[in-house]
Amino acid sequence: MITIHNKNFVPYISEDEIKKKVKNLAEQISKDYDGMKPLFIAILNGAFMFASDLFKELEIEAEISFIKLASYKGMKSTGQVLTAIGLDFDINDRHVIIIEDIVDTGKTLHSFLPQLRHSQPKSIKLATLLHKPEALLFPVEIDYVCFAIPDKFVVGYGLDFDNLGRNLKEIYQIEE
Ligand code: 5GP
After folding, report:
1. What is the pLDDT of residue 33?
2. 153 lines ligand 1 (CB under 6 A)
3. 32 is catalytic
4. Atom of ligand 1 nearest to the CA of 101
5. Which of 75, 37, 66, 59 minimizes the C-alpha distance to 161?
6. Does 39 sit in the ligand 1 pocket, CB within 6 Å?
7. What is the rounded distance in angstroms from the CA atom of residue 171 to the CA atom of residue 176?
């Protein structure tokens, strides 16, 4: 067990399990996008580790860019989506794959994806490390999911609790 900001967290998904899933996903995407030179757009901060590991395992020609959206404060989505900062690629006519750390209520992507569609990419798909199906409030179509998890707060492997815990190699779940 570990403690972050006075909350206890228990080990939930091991480093090995994460590695395996990420590798499998990279193989799948490499098959699906062979010859299409997809553009990955990773959403900071949470997705940085997942994006990096996934990108390393790809066996095809691909590009990546990192953007920042809404901030997530404490243990609940604040809901206020900020404008995308840092998208330095023209996505028009490109095959785009969004990389997210976790889809919780779906609010972030539900607001952001229509913005991206305005630029008329050839296609947009969504890859997320984690998904909480029970928490989904806004319709979001998810194309690639590594782990579907219950509606409990998690940290580690890029995900934080008030800025701490991102460096953990495995994923921890809040102890209840
Ligand atoms: P949504 O808009 O889908 O409700 O929330 C998406 C964002 O909320 C994620 O990108 C993530 O930053 C944050 N989030 C949602 N659930 C969790 C969680 O269990 N742990 C952490 N660390 N962040 C979460």
Report:
1. 98
2. yes
3. no
4. 10
5. 75
6. no
7. 16
Question: What share of residues in the chain are helix, strand, coil (percent, to 5)?
Answer: 25, 30, 45
Which portions of the chain are predicted below pLDDT 70?
Answer: 70-82
Convert the pLDDT of each residue in 86-131 to its tens digit.
Answer: 888 899 999 999 999 999 999 889 888 988 998 999 999 999 999 9
Out of 93, 104, 151, 160, pick the active-site residue: 104
Instruction: Give the pLDDT of residue 91.
Output: 95
Best residue among 10, 78, 103, 104 to mutate for probing ligand 1's pocket (most ligand atoms within 8 Å of CB) is: 104
Other CB atoms within a 10 A radius of the CB of residue 44 amount to: 15
Rounded CA-CA distance 18/173 in Å is 14
pLDDT at 72 (0 to 100)? 46
Query: How is residue 60 written in tokens?
Result: 């095809």
Domains recognised in the chain with CATH numbers: 15-152 (3.40.50.2020)
The one-letter code for the residue type at 166 is R
46 in contact with ligand 1, CB cutoff 6 A: yes
